[in-house]
Amino acid sequence: MPVARCHFADGKIFEVEADPGESFLEASLRAGAPVRYQCRSGSCLSCACSSDSNGLKMRPGVASSLLKTEIAAGRRLCCIGQLQSDDELHFAYRSDSAGPAEVSAFVDAIEWMAPDVVKLRVELADGEWIDFQPGQYVRVTPPGAETARSYSMCSTPETLPTLEFMIRVLDKGVMSDYLRSSAQRDDVLTLSGPFGGFTWKGDRREPHLFIAGGTGLSPIASIIEQIRATSGRKPPMFLSFGCATRDNLFAGDYLKLLAQWLPTLDVRIAVERGAEDGLLAGNPLTAITEAQISSDVRAYICGPPAMIAAAVEKLSAAGVPANQIHYEQFIASQQSEA
Questions:
Q1: Under 8 Å CB-to-CB from 69, ≥6 apart: which residues?
Q2: Which residue, 8, 193, 260, 264, is most buried by CB atoms nearer than 10 A?
Q3: Do 304 and 213 meet the contact criterion of CB atoms below 8 Å apart?
Q4: Cβ(317)–Cβ(291) under 8 Å?
């Protein structure tokens, strides 16, 4: 049977032997390798790694959150990958990093930011804690439900034990129905996590480009707030944010304040329909010109899959290296309503 050597950021190596046709994630868990995971279906990027020799192959016909360019560059998802020959796999986190926690949190406030967007603020129960990096997400289970949904925090660890989320409310869905019809202060929610590797890389000299569609603003706001709270030099930053219509637009006042607080941040807001009063007509890519793209730019993108794919294509065509383009997306599944 083929064997993969799993390399982690702290230098630890775990050898994993996989049966033919077996999910590499299942083989890793059996072998005791500390591979992170969440959805088990290719919807998230929690179990992502890099393959040296293409021994770990993705199951054909299975949709995933990886772009074609990433797969071609050797990125793999363990949950829908099968080991077909020996390989060297690399994981971008330590082998001893804390795994996901499950905690209880009380609803503290519910603010309707737009007809289909809610800002949810929760406070962790006494004695419970959840460590996260800005840009990550947790799974949220409403009272009485057995199904969780995934949402990124828009707050930072500095505000703990309080966490905030910008949540899109759909016509139907376990969390959407709860927020629309029955959510109230002091309800108890179950949170599990954190998950995801969409986090600030800590660069200060390179220009930063943020592209957010809809509630994809939530993790990007968390990252920008982290940069704001970090002492010292701030990088040049450009944020392009967009919604479908003016009525769906939210967080405009907050973004204006953010630009005032951060002199190195330039903000542009676009709507596809109803643009007026300084709004751009189009999607978040409309504001992205040659002035915002350079070979050393760090790009952070979050929003609908089609927007992400178009943004990655545009940046790649302009010469931005793949390792400087970071994104977060959820494909349609029962795991996420965002």
A1: 312, 316, 322
A2: 193
A3: yes
A4: no
